[in-house]
Amino acid sequence: MLECNPLQKPLPYYQQIQQSIKESIFNGIYKPGDRLYEAQIATFYNTSRSPVREAIRALVMEGLLVMDQKSQISVYKPNLQDVRDIYECRISLESTAVELTAVRATEEQLQELEKTLEDSEQAMKEVITDRVIACNARFHELIIQYSGNPRLMKLVEGLNGLIQYYRVLNIQGENRFNTILKGHREIYDAIKERNPKKAADRLREHTQEDLSNLVHVIEQLEER
């Protein structure tokens, strides 16, 4: 007799639209400061305005869209103060997470972290930028998950939209692929050594390096 696998429900329509708009922002189709219009989006997706409105509301909550006092919607435009504020939060939360992960991670979880590094290295060799970004995100997400602290996970979740946006920008720069992988390997080695302080120190160094590069990228964008 065949095993009965539960059917996967499709995502609600507004979430599909939300994800599509998000990908358009990350891929540069919608650029920082671009105005978005409910009616045009509804026409594009051949739907009513209701799911579009829900998608926009969710993206505003994530910080990827901005609504002004006149209820006009535009794509988030990164600024240096925002970047520094969010990276301060990241460093604080993720350094705590990596300390916990160094203590609590199982052998199977360590193997999963190592596999993510291997996948990242393969993506770099094949120059698959989207895959490199995905592996970068996955490595940090696993550290948060393996901390075993659901409250901490929830706090990071509130920043994830903009963090991912910054990751897409931060892939720019000289020798970025190798720099990112080197930082991740140093963090992983410290976790594997079960050395919480060293893991947190390496994560702070890696994230500060990311911040420095991102500031440079945004300064160049502002000059254009």
Automatic annotation (TrEMBL):
Q: Pfam families from the xrefs?
A: FCD (PF07729), GntR (PF00392)
UniProt GO MF annotations? DNA binding; DNA-binding transcription factor activity
Q: Which domain of life is it from?
A: Bacteria
Tell me what organism the protein belongs to: Neobacillus rhizophilus
Entry coiled-coil feature ranges = 103-130
Which UniProt keywords are listed? Coiled coil, DNA-binding, Transcription, Transcription regulation
Q: Describe the location of the HTH gntR-type domain by residue ranges.
A: 11-78
Q: What is this protein called?
A: GntR family transcriptional regulator
